[in-house]
Amino acid sequence: MRPFKGLAIIALVSCMTLSTANALTEGEQRQLWALSDQVAALDDFYSLGPGDVLNIVVFNHEDLSGEFVVSMVGIVSLPLIGDIRALGRTINEVRQNYSDLLANGFLVNPSVSASVSLYRPFFIDGGVLEPGVYPYQPGMQILHAIALAGGYSKVANKNIPPILKRASGAPVSGEAISVHTQIYPGDVVEIPVCTTTWNHRSCF
């Protein structure tokens, strides 16, 4: 279980961005500040991917411990062992694999802990002031992503639900997408925009 370390960061960014004329509605602001105090537990099901940073600790062996980045081909390079596959695995599966390999001729009963110290970013585009790539934190909703991207732009179409493209391995709930839908590392969020011609704008 990992605490929602990004809670304060998101709240701070929200405070700065929601003061603009094109910011979120009052109801959305209330939802944003009413962040859950529950711990987000991604590690049990989250499938690792390129860009994730793993914090691995081998008890009493600092030389075998550290932070390791999952490569673009889904490989993580670990001391003594070399490359092992991380793509599509959970952090616990990687931890167990590393522990088993260390026990195979290197250490006696190795004690290994592992967590994701930095998740791969998510992407947001469309009707926001600052579209782009943003750091992910457990528990984030589309609402938080909009705030981090500066709030709604003038051409945002709030009458149409956001479009969400899930990253490979992310859970799919089957529920209708809304600003309160949870996002996961690597997801792509698109905020619809109004249809505009030279003399008319349609937001229906």
Question: In words, what does this structure look like?
Answer:
The chain has 204 residues and is an alpha+beta fold. The protein has two domains: 7-38 and 121-202, Outer membrane lipoprotein wza fold like (Roll); 53-118, wza like fold. The protein has four helices and eleven strands, in the order ααββββαβββαββββ. It has helices at 7-17, 26-33, 91-103, 142-148; strands spanning 53-58, 66-69, 75-78, 82-85, 112-118, 122-126, 132-134, 163-165, 188-191, 195-196, 201-202. Strands 7-6-9-8 form a four-stranded mixed β-sheet, covered by helices on one side.
Task: Lay out the secondary structure.
Blueprint lengths: L6 H11 L8 H8 L19 E6 L7 E4 L5 E4 L3 E4 L5 H13 L8 E7 L3 E5 L5 E3 L7 H7 L14 E3 L22 E4 L3 E2 L4 E2 L2
Parallel strand pairs: 6-9
Antiparallel strand pairs: 1-2, 1-5, 3-4, 6-7, 8-9, 10-11
Residue windows where pLDDT falls under 50 for at least 5 positions: 1-21, 33-40
Sheet with most strands: 4 strands, mixed
The domain count comes to: 2
The SS-based structural class is alpha+beta
Task: Give a concise summary.
The protein has helices at residues 7-17, 26-33, 91-103, 142-148, and strands at 53-58, 66-69, 75-78, 82-85, 112-118, 122-126, 132-134, 163-165, 188-191, 195-196, 201-202. With 204 residues, the protein is an alpha+beta fold.
